[in-house]
Amino acid sequence: MRKKAAKKRPLLPDPRFNDQLVTRFVNMMMWDGKKSVAFKVFYDAIDIVGEKKTDEEKTALELWKDALSNVMPHVEVRSRRVGGATFQIPMQIRPDRKVSTAMKWLITYSRKRNEKSMAQRLASEILAAAKEEGAAVKKRVDTHKMAEANKAFSHFRF
């Protein structure tokens, strides 16, 4: 790396909840620079979560944050070549990478669902993840299992 690392640009908080995490999520969900469409999808999904939720003391946004924390991985495996062989080495994940990985998984598995609109798909995946169910949570569990299975190679960490 010749040049210094790029500075993190500050994100503007979203208009409805005044939260930077929401803006980050919407930016990840956005396709072809259509930010207003992505915001509409997210807000519609949050409204659907608000209608369907069973837990009365939590707001829909808190439910979304719970879902995000349930999807967040704590360890991941990284490939490392040692003496001609490639090993899967379990490593801790940086906090910002944890969040972005959780968001990616939530969005990816929402898109693969079978509901009519993206807002309904996202709402269903959020509700499932909040209850520690759903494909995104399964992905986190599989990642943790993979790291556990390869714990023997952790001494190759760099």
TrEMBL record:
Domain Small ribosomal subunit protein uS7 span(s) in chain numbering: 1-151
Keywords assigned by UniProt, alphabetized: Ribonucleoprotein, Ribosomal protein, RNA-binding, rRNA-binding, tRNA-binding
PANTHER family, sorted: RIBOSOMAL PROTEIN S7
InterPro entries according to UniProt: Ribosomal_uS7 (IPR000235), Ribosomal_uS7_bac/org-type (IPR005717), Ribosomal_uS7_CS (IPR020606), Ribosomal_uS7_dom (IPR023798), Ribosomal_uS7_dom_sf (IPR036823)
Membership in a protein family: Belongs to the universal ribosomal protein uS7 family.
Subunit: Part of the 30S ribosomal subunit. Contacts proteins S9 and S11.
Highest taxon above the source species: Bacteria
Function of the protein: One of the primary rRNA binding proteins, it binds directly to 16S rRNA where it nucleates assembly of the head domain of the 30S subunit. Is located at the subunit interface close to the decoding center, probably blocks exit of the E-site tRNA.
Organism expressing this protein natively: Bizionia myxarmorum
Pfam families cross-referenced by the UniProt entry: Ribosomal_S7
Sample GO molecular function, one term: rRNA binding
Any Gene Ontology CC annotation: small ribosomal subunit
Matching SUPFAM superfamilies: Ribosomal protein S7
UniProt protein name: Small ribosomal subunit protein uS7
Gene Ontology annotations of biological process type: translation
